[in-house]
Amino acid sequence: MDNRRKNSKKRQAILDALCATKEHPTAEMLYRQLKEEYPELSLGTVYRNLGVLAEEGLTVSVCRVSGQERYDADTKPHAHFVCRSCRRVMDMELPEAVADTCRELDREYGFLTEDCSLTVRGLCSCCRKAQAS
Question: What is the pTM of this model?
């Protein structure tokens, strides 16, 4: 029996919008972006489809910023920086030391790490410069 879900135009539009940005949008941001092209689109539909896309491994929930989940279509291992001032979420290379730590934990405790993420929070360079002025 095939358990894959039927793809829909709205789900594909949500995925396409997410793939087209590095901004790590919220469901609300995606909803506002797509609403004009899909007038019947609801915020609930966006949330449900983001959940489906995550279950299928096509998107990931990165972190919560100001109480709102942020999403990413880049599912390969990488880290994120969240600025506490401007609230931007930026991609960073995942330091090899983090991957080494996960492998060491696997060896020491018999784990099989399937996912490893790192989120760093602070001030981005632009906000840091603005505060210094």
Answer: 0.83
Whole-angstrom Cα distance, residue 4 to residue 102? 31
3-state helix, strand and coil shares in percent for the chain, rounded to the nearest 5 = 40, 20, 40
Range of the domain at 34: 1-75
> 16 and 71 share a domain?
yes
End residue of a domain, out of 29, 44, 75 = 75
Mean pLDDT, residues 39-47: 97
Q: Could you give the percent of the chain with pLDDT greater than 90?
A: 79
What number of helices (H) and strands (E) belong to the chain?
5, 5
Same domain, 46 and 98: no
Nearest CA to 56 out of 89, 124, 115, 7 is that of 7
